[in-house]
Design goal:
By secondary structure, the protein is an all-alpha fold. The protein is about 50% helix and about 0% strand. The chain starts with 18 loop residues before the first helix and ends with a helix. The model has no long low-confidence stretch (mean pLDDT about 85).
């Protein structure tokens, strides 16, 4: 019997409060992926602006997003 994998994205912390962990991982990998680190005090504003604007502001390249997600997701499981 085949098992289907399910991925749940909880970007707003509804299911688990993982904001601090994601914030740290995002900044830990900024140099590796070439985007601008985030300061704690700017996080609430960035969170409200939506993905497209936030990605432009922080220079997150759309083509790198799958690799970023895989890397951060792997580290969340450690």
């Amino acid at each position: 019997m085949a098992r289907n994998a399910t991925v749940i994205f909880d970007f707003d912390g509804t299911l688990a409060n993982s904001v601090d962990l994601m914030f740290r991982l995002y900044n830990d990998h900024a140099e590796q992926f070439g985007y601008i680190p985030m300061k704690k005090e700017e996080f609430p504003e960035i969170r409200r602006m939506g993905y497209s604007k936030a990605m432009r502001l922080k220079k997150v390249k759309l083509r790198m997003l799958p690799k970023i997600i895989m890397t951060l997701g792997r580290e969340m499981r450690i």
